[in-house]
Every structure is written in structure tokens, then in C-alpha cells.
Amino acid sequence: MKIKNICCIGAGYVGGPTMAVIADNCPSIKVEVVDINKDRIRKWNDKNLKNLPIYEPGLAEIIKRCRGVNLHFSDQVKEKIQNADMIFISVNTPTKKKGLGAGKASDLQWVEESARQVAQYSNGHTIVVEKSTLPVRTAEVIQEILMSAASDKAGNEISFNVLSNPEFLAEGTAIQDLEKPDRVLIGGDNRDAMNALKEIYSNWVPKEKILFTNIWSSELAKLTANAFLAQRISSINSIAALCEATGADVREVSRAIGTDSRIGSKFLDSGPGFGGSCFKKDILNLVYLAEYFGLNEVANFWESVVKLNNWHQNRISELIVKKLFGTVTGKKIVVLGFAFKANTNDTRESAAIQICKDLIDQGAEITIHDPKVNESQIEKDLQMKQKRELEDSTENILLSKAGNWKFSKSLFDIFNNVHAVLMLTEWDEYKNIDWDEVSKKMVRPAWVFDSRSIIEKKNIINTKLNLWRVGDGTDE
Ligand code: NAD
Ligand code: UGA
Questions:
Q1: Cβ(223) to ligand 2 under 6 A?
Q2: Are 272 and 316 contacting, i.e. CB atoms less than 8 angstroms apart?
Q3: What b/e sequence results for 415-449 when a residue is b if at least 16 CB atoms lie within 10 Å of its CB, and e otherwise?
């Protein structure tokens, strides 16, 4: 089975970069990426590559090479499905907000809708690939929906194979991860279909890195990988709190345990708590599955990873208030970074959201800087307009005692008369801040809270600033 036309349903953080890399490496395949979100498609087609809907290092260069050649973005879902011999489903699978399993199970309405669209519009034989992260046995649901369409509009017989091909890319390094993946996982029960997908990846991925499993193992492996990664972060963040209490330094502890080859050194950086669209939702999904199968101890074990993460985020905002003499009302705090990690404009589940909300609730006046996140996104996340827009309204008189936030595009002048600086995202440009200069602009006594532990103590020792770094108990 030689694939000539691919359609990807969903032009998000996974669909966009994944299809761009496939198109770049497979010039003979025509790749169509479709989305119901017209605005997103318009941005993918924007002539100015700075306006792409997703920021990923290296992505714009690929789009420049392939867009309009063998990579196309469109909102014509029906037409593109009709022409495809392989369809990737790469739509969102957030945690359900209501109904059965609310708060834990994945909301599969977009996956179901995609499967229905494929059933309705496809013709001939089509390989349907689950790219979204899904609960175990979702392929069964997709298969059932597809099988309900035994013929196309003209009465010709149609058929499908369903494969699971979860995506392991991390945001900020998506292109690198896609170009040189640790592995590509293909789950299925039809060798021809699995080989057809393998042939596509073989254009740039060494064959020994392409793993075949049964479809349920593939679905479960994706949830398990994210659960294990998140568990490491909660583990090290729990130790960070212990370091602060005992005079140890979590960075030294990480280095010491990371040299044990059985543990490994990656994913041992203590931070403000994991964010991102997937860790929390995928663990909660695992918890739901375990509960569904009556495995309550298993469910409790994984749920504790999320609980520890929430506790850790609260611990940071409480600690800031305590260090600022028990109150932040009317105090000016600069927040450096709002994205859930560096090198992405994504803010989903970012620790910054809860920490900023907590501080604003307690009356702080916050100035937020982020090199890639825009102010309208922050407004949506905090569910609050920024101060500038309220200034002339009567509403502002009522709010004058409440906390507020504003956005700053530059770091210049941002530190004037502030009481504290809070580092939340590890952007490179924050590593070169001249703390000596900053300290001259801040009020005294002033604090720097470094939740990413990226500030070198030697750069702050001669300033009049107080420094708190996550997991650093050496000064206490
Ligand atoms: P996203 O929200 O950025 O993108 C999903 C897109 O699908 C949206 O643009 C939405 O409009 C579109 N869509 C929904 N229903 C549609 C339909 N019926 N027809 C056409 N388009 C439709 O989500 P994402 O971050 O790209 O994640 C997608 C999946 O990949 C999720 O299951 C996620 O868990 C998984 N995943 C995400 C990442 C990541 O880094 N974000 C990494 C690995 C796996
Ligand atoms: C994560 C996984 O790493 C990907 O393999 C997976 O495909 C993806 O989820 C997904 O399924 O969505 P991502 O969320 O993009 O990728 O980013 P990570 O690098 O995993 O970071 C997640 C969070 O953990 C961030 O908030 C980051 O700052 C934090 N983190 C990471 C730490 O606090 N410490 C670390 O050592 C590593």
C-alpha cells in the first residue's frame, strides 16, 4: 500500500508540526491539514511567517519550504477527507467538564466527530491513524463508527484500518523531536496498514526505532509515558520542599541521583510545577481507567502525582506572601514568563496562571512579561482584564484596592519601584538579566523568587536583593 495523499484532521500543536515534518521528508506525498477553526487555518496560511498560530523553533523554515508545494492548510474538511488514503486524527482530547467521568475522563466528542466525518466522506480503502492521545480501547469506538458506513454515496464499498500512532513530541522542541524521535510507535492488527505507515516514517527515521505493538499497548504506552514523566517532576518537587527545610540543594540532589544510570538525569529539574495541556489530563485519564477497572490503589497512586503538583504551586504563592511580610496588597510584583515552559507560546495549565491568580486575589499589582505569549491570551487565562483598560472606568474605583495585572512587551523599565520579581518560565533572555542594575530600580527590601533555579547566586550576591530559589535550602 503506497500512500500518496494524507489528510490530518486538526491543525493544532501536534497536527501542524507533525504534518510539516512529514511533508518535508516525503516530497512525493501530498499532505492536507484541515481544521474547523477558520482563524487557525488563516494563520497557518499567513504570508508573514511570524503570524503562524504556533511558535516552535524551526517550524517557520519548514513551512516556508513546503507550504503550497506538498503541504496545504484548509478548512475544507469534506473535500480533503475524500481525497485521502491515510487520515490522521489529531484533534483535542481535553478532560471532560460534565457528565459521566467529569473531571477525569477524556472528552472524546471531537474524536467521535472526526470519525463520523471520515465515515461520511471517505471512499475506497482508508487507513485511519489515531494521533491524538486516547484512552485504551478508543480504537474500538472509532472502528465501530467507521464500520457503520459500509459504502460511499455512490454505493461503492468502502473499508478502513485503524492504527494507533501516538505522538511523543514536547512543545518547544517539537521539530527536533519529530526529526529525531527516540521511537515511533505503531499499534495495530493489520500488517499491511502498519507497514504503509512505517514506510512513511522510514523516509527519515531509522527502521529499528519504529516499534510495532498491538493497538491497546500503543494507546496505553502513550498515557504511561506521560504519567512517568510527570511523576518524576512531582517526585523532584517534593524533594525540593524537603531540601528547603533541611539545608540541602535540590540541584545537587538531582545531579547526584541523575548520575545513577538506572535513574538518568533528564526530567529532574525542580520548577513551579508541571504545566502543559497533557500531563494533568493524561494522568487523570489513567486514574479514570484504573477506577473503571476497580483498581483503586493504582488510581490513588497516580492521582497523588497531580495532587502533589497542585500543592507545590500553592506552596510557591504562599511562600511569596510570607516572605513579603505576610501581605502583597498594593505591592508591585514583576512576573517573568507566562508560558508553561520556554520556547513555546502555549500557556495551557501553566503554573503561572494559578500563581498569578493567587497573588492578584491577595491584592498584588502584577506586571507580566513573556517573549512569546500575547496579552489577550493572558487575559483569557486569568479571566480578568488588564489594568490599563480599566483605568478610566468607574469600575476601577471599586477595584482600586483589589489586585490587578498588566502586560509589558519589554523588560526595559519594568523593574521600577517593584517589591519582588518572580521567575516562572526559564526563557534564555532571563538568564542574562543584570541584577545589579535591577536592584537599583527596586524598592528596599526587595525579593527575587526564582522558581526555575536559573539565577546564579554569584550574580546576585553583591546586590541588595534577597533571593529565594526553589529547592535551595542552603541559606536558611
Ligand atoms: P489543539 O487543541 O492545539 O488542536 C486540536 C485542533 O483540532 C484544534 O485546532 C481544533 O479546532 C481541531 N478540531 C477539533 N475537532 C475537529 C474536527 N471535527 N474537524 C477538524 N478539526 C477539528 O490540540 P493539540 O495540542 O494539537 O493536541 C491534539 C492531541 O494530541 C491531543 O490528544 C493531545 O493530548 C495530543 N498530544 C499533544 C501534544 C502537545 O504537545 N500539545 C503532544 C503529544 C500529544
Ligand atoms: C510532554 C512530554 O514531554 C511529551 O513527550 C508528550 O508528547 C507531551 O507532553 C504531550 O503528550 O503533550 P510538553 O508538555 O510539551 O511534553 O513539555 P515537557 O517538556 O514535558 O514539560 C512539561 C512541564 O514539565 C513543563 O511545565 C515543564 O516546565 C515541566 N518540567 C519539565 C519540569 O518542571 N522539570 C523538568 O525537569 C522537566
A1: no
A2: yes
A3: beebbbbbbbbbbeebeebebeebbeebeeebbbb
Whole-number Å distance, alpha carbon 169 to ligand 1 midpoint, is: 13
What pLDDT is attached to residue 475? 72
pLDDT at 39 over 70: yes
Ligand 1, CB cutoff 6 Å, lining residues: 9-15, 34-37, 40, 77, 90-93, 110, 113-114, 117, 132-133, 167, 169, 171, 277-278
Which of 75, 113, 71 lies closest to 92 in space, CA to CA? 113
Instruction: Write the pLDDT tens digit of every residue in 111-149.
Output: 999 999 999 999 999 999 999 999 988 989 999 999 887
Shortest-distance Cα residue to atom 6 of ligand 1? 10
Smallest CA-to-CA distance from 407 within 348, 338, 344, 327 is with 338
**Ligand 2 centre from 41 Cα, in Å?**
26
pLDDT tens for each residue of 350-404: 999 999 999 999 999 999 999 999 999 999 999 999 986 555 555 554 455 689 9
DSSP code for 432: G
Q: Which residues are catalytic?
A: 278
Distances (CA, A) of 106 to 29, 135, 283, 353, 419: 32, 7, 10, 22, 42
- The tens digit of pLDDT for each residue in 200-243 reads 999 999 999 999 999 999 999 999 999 999 999 999 999 999 99
- Which residue has the CA at smallest separation from atom 1 of ligand 2? 170
Spatial separation of the C-alpha atoms in residues 422 and 214, rounded to whole Å: 47
Q: Where do we find the cell 546576585?
A: 460
